[in-house]
Amino acid sequence: MINQFRSRQFLVFLLTGGTAALVNFGSRILYSTRFSFSTSIVIAYITGMITAFVLAKLFVFKQSQQTLRRSIIFFILVNIIAVAQTWLISIALAYYLLPKLGIIFFVREIAHAVGVIVPAFTSYIGHKKFSFK
């Protein structure tokens, strides 16, 4: 299981996912000017998810034999789990853990960055086994 995280495919997944994460993170800051932090996390995740799908399809899972429709359905299902992880981790860190640790600067940014990074591993496995099988 660990060996699949040492592959070229996983490295490209991290690069394309990193790009999508930057889109997610940056758009959350923009969305926060109009929406609550919580709502902005979800909307930004959708923005990043669209970016991630396109990049994964073009650069990571090029040999996928699934139909586009099936890939999109499974991509959404895998990302529903990932957005729940992102949201729970971001909220828990921003409103509970980081304040208890005395961190007062860039709390939401730190919380959201950690929340975006954590699902990278579970998403890779989900996309490899289901979305782009």
UniProtKB/TrEMBL annotation:
Compartment(s): Membrane
Transmembrane parts of this sequence: 12-31, 37-60, 72-97, 103-125
Membrane topology: Multi-pass membrane protein
One GO-annotated biological process of the protein: polysaccharide biosynthetic process
InterPro entries: GtrA_DPMS_TM (IPR007267)
Keywords: Membrane, Transmembrane, Transmembrane helix
Cellular component GO terms held in the UniProt record: membrane
Domain GtrA/DPMS transmembrane: 13-132
Keyword Ion transport in record: no
Alphabetized Pfam families for the sequence: GtrA_DPMS_TM
Name of the molecule in the record: GtrA family protein
Provenance organism: Methylotenera versatilis (strain 301)
